[in-house]
Automatic annotation (TrEMBL), chains A, B:
<keyword id="KW-0436">Ligase</keyword>
<dbReference type="GO" id="GO:0004592">
    <property type="term" value="F:pantoate-beta-alanine ligase activity"/>
</dbReference>
<keyword id="KW-0566">Pantothenate biosynthesis</keyword>
<dbReference type="InterPro" id="IPR003721">
    <property type="entry name" value="Pantoate_ligase"/>
</dbReference>
<comment type="subunit">
    <text>Homodimer.</text>
</comment>
<dbReference type="Pfam" id="PF02569">
    <property type="entry name" value="Pantoate_ligase"/>
</dbReference>
<protein>
    <recommendedName>
        <fullName>Pantoate--beta-alanine ligase</fullName>
        <ecNumber>6.3.2.1</ecNumber>
    </recommendedName>
</protein>
<comment type="similarity">
    <text>Belongs to the pantothenate synthetase family.</text>
</comment>
<dbReference type="GO" id="GO:0005829">
    <property type="term" value="C:cytosol"/>
</dbReference>
<dbReference type="GO" id="GO:0015940">
    <property type="term" value="P:pantothenate biosynthetic process"/>
</dbReference>
<dbReference type="InterPro" id="IPR014729">
    <property type="entry name" value="Rossmann-like_a/b/a_fold"/>
</dbReference>
<keyword id="KW-0547">Nucleotide-binding</keyword>
<keyword id="KW-0067">ATP-binding</keyword>
<keyword id="KW-0963">Cytoplasm</keyword>
<dbReference type="GO" id="GO:0005524">
    <property type="term" value="F:ATP binding"/>
</dbReference>
<comment type="pathway">
    <text>Cofactor biosynthesis; (R)-pantothenate biosynthesis; (R)-pantothenate from (R)-pantoate and beta-alanine: step 1/1.</text>
</comment>
<dbReference type="InterPro" id="IPR042176">
    <property type="entry name" value="Pantoate_ligase_C"/>
</dbReference>
């Protein structure tokens, strides 16, 4: 195997855009894989997917405070930048650039001025407001952002859509690859791209699972071996439900109950278990369209999500 | 004077972006002047301003349903496309392209599917939702959008920020010129560009007034000669207030009352009269920072806005 070159590491917004523009001027197309770092096989599969579509690959590594509430796990979100670079280089072709900004919400003087105003207002939502950053523009995808993860994490999708808009405007990619493990996120980004006319093609990449069936997630590192064993109830019960649906059980209440019960019996706490239309993400009562069965559940202090598409 | 060439008229999004990209590949910079048409001297001053900054000029002419409530004047908003082209050609250098899309919210099949969902939801806000368009992504500038025009027109700035995002993503300009007559809009667009990292420099262009002092507006055409005469109370009382401030009257309550009274006596109905910080648009009690005195008032069925910066 040919040695994979180390990616160029860029931390500055202007320099990132300059790189993209100079590459585009040379006729090269650019693929973006946005990540929050602590990469695993799931992320690497996104990089492999991106290589199918564009000449050059940018992987962004940035833990976005705009999608965390102050009471969520931003401070404990795992990171290992050196390890990430090594993992990226283990993929054939690697990446051309790793974009690793320090703070995407730092606007210098004009941000500081706003900090004082925030304290006066006393309004706090995400960690961006909580830290007194002056940022105040948010991209909202009205309907798709409301259900499922949006219900439990009200600032989450606002933060995701906003930081992806920023990354698109900085990196100016032709293609961006998102994992379908974050199914609702993937649909929201696609809708946002359509509605705001971003010149970016959004690709959804299939879920990567461990040998035991657990969907890959950076948060899995926080699971004890025992919790991980219990967490397998998510993928196992989802597979069972999918099989049952394919065999004729199309009643969603029945299917949901069986999954909720299985996770509960394994010691998990279900946040939601919903069977929704793949496009609109609206709940269905019977499976007669293309649906996706989405789960979020807590095992110990770790919240995991997973999903399976069911196309009858 | 050399004959000014007719602008190329482009109605298709993809074709518009293709034009911009091919020009950029040739090293040309692009200026955008977004308008809703029915051009007047104020708009033409924006085109003249744009010529100072870029090689090429795109003027967009599009009445944006996303910034009108169903009960506002979208249906009676004046238009004269042929006249607009002639006026653009009266400016030295004219424009290279007039971007004149039919419907920026038409997404084909995926929009139609959503229309049915909207009716189920029964949620209506702007004319975009009212007409059952599937669009659901909105750009919000949290603090700046709330006061003044945002109070009387709750969907307005959401619609403006969103359509300007769309235009930026379609036209991909280097520079965009906005009139400071719409002061709050100008500040909101600048903040949005900063917060979402758009690669666009936003220029604010000074208000253009008729010989009688009335700020130029497409809506002025709806004023009877008598109403126009009365509407002069806005610019006259603003000038008086500015003069008073410069002479030492820094109490904003006093200054506001004098303007409100003058407009009221002329037969106008004041929507708001606020003296605010030029950056944050927060109301001030005494003028000891750079402020702008902003007015909105109705004369007959016409709502007019105007403002003056006061830099003591």
């Amino acid at each position: 195997m040919a040695a994979v070159k180390a990616p160029e590491i860029i931390t500055d917004k202007a320099q990132m855009r300059q790189w993209s523009r100079s590459m585009r001027a040379q006729g090269k197309s650019i693929g973006l894989v946005p990540t929050m770092g602590y990469l695993h096989e799931g992320h690497l599969s996104l990089i492999r997917e991106a290589h199918k579509h564009t000449h050059l690959i940018v992987v962004s590594v940035y833990v976005n405070p705009g999608q965390f509430s102050p009471n969520e796990d931003l401070s404990t979100y795992p990171s290992d930048f050196d390890g990430d670079i090594k993992k990226i280089m283990s993929v054939p072709g690697g990446a051309d650039v790793v974009f690793h900004p320090h703070n995407l919400y730092d606007y210098g003087e004009s941000g500081v001025e706003n900090e004082m105003k925030r304290e006066k207002d006393g309004v706090i939502m995400s960690c961006v407001e909580d830290r007194g950053m002056g940022h105040e523009t948010w991209v909202r995808v009205d309907r798709l952002e409301k259900g499922m993860c949006g219900k439990s994490r009200p600032v989450f999708f606002r933060g995701v859509a906003t930081v992806v808009s920023k990354l698109f405007n900085i990196v100016e990619p032709d293609v961006a690859v998102f994992g379908k493990k974050d199914y609702q996120q993937w649909r929201i980004i696609r809708r946002m791209v359509r509605d705001l006319d971003f010149a970016v093609t959004v690709i959804g990449s299939e879920i990567v699972r461990g040998d035991d069936g657990l969907a890959m997630s950076s948060r899995n590192v926080h699971l004890s071996p025992n919790e991980r064993e219990k967490a397998l109830s998510i993928s196992k019960s989802l597979s069972k439900a999918k099989y049952a649906a394919e065999k004729g059980q199309i009643n969603c209440t029945e299917l949901r109950n069986s999954v909720i019960q299985a996770i509960h019996e394994a010691g998990g706490r279900v946040d939601y278990a919903e069977i929704v239309d793949q496009e609109s993400l609206e709940a269905v009562e019977e499976i007669n369209v293309h649906v996706v069965f989405c789960i979020a559940a807590w095992f110990g202090k770790v919240r995991l999500i997973d999903n399976m598409e069911i196309n009858l």
